[in-house]
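Hi F.,

I've been meaning to write this up properly since the lab meeting, where we talked about keeping a consistent format for the predictions we share between groups. The idea is simple: the sequence comes first, exactly as it goes in, then the structure tokens exactly as they come out, then a line or two of notes. No screenshots and no reformatting. I'm using this chain as the first example so we have something concrete to point to.
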Amino acid sequence: MESVKLIDFKKIKDGKYLKNYELHYTNKLGHDKTYEIVSYRDLESIDDIGSHVGGVVIAGLHEGKLLLLREFRMGVNRFVYNLCAGRREYGESIEDCAARELYEETGLSLKRIVETFRPAYGALTLSDAANQLVIAELEGEISDHTEEDELIEAGFYDKEQVQRLLEEEPFSSRAQFVAYSFTKGLFDQ
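Output, unedited:
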């Protein structure tokens, strides 16, 4: 049995935010195959695929409560509970990205970053996008600084409230796991 080997790729569409690519590879039996992905970036080489940290995801805590965003997501045509997150701007550190995205989506500020995790992929079957999870203590008052096309309702929730949301509401997978971990005390200090 051979290993899977990526041979080459080509851009098939250049959208406003996403670029579509066809990847040509051989599977473990040596058969030629084609796979399709999207990327936020223009890919220059095979080694460029999956090599860039594109943004941040924030598990925000304040006075024993977890920050969750109830937001309308076009990709699923409904409101879902999610974490504050966003794309990193050119030259921006993960910490600066977290502070900017937090303010833009909630009006809150970073009080202290507790931990920053290594990059993780959010949609392995569709994209090469990688983000870093930041656990942070937050401060300030929630206020709306969102863009006109964003519908985001930010709120702090205690363990009981989060458990109820997990039982009754749709979540993004990352927010679901962070929320579950929160209810089990993994973020207790």
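Notes:
The chain has a mean pLDDT of 95.
The chain has three helices and eleven strands.

If this format works for you, I'll send the rest the same way.

G.
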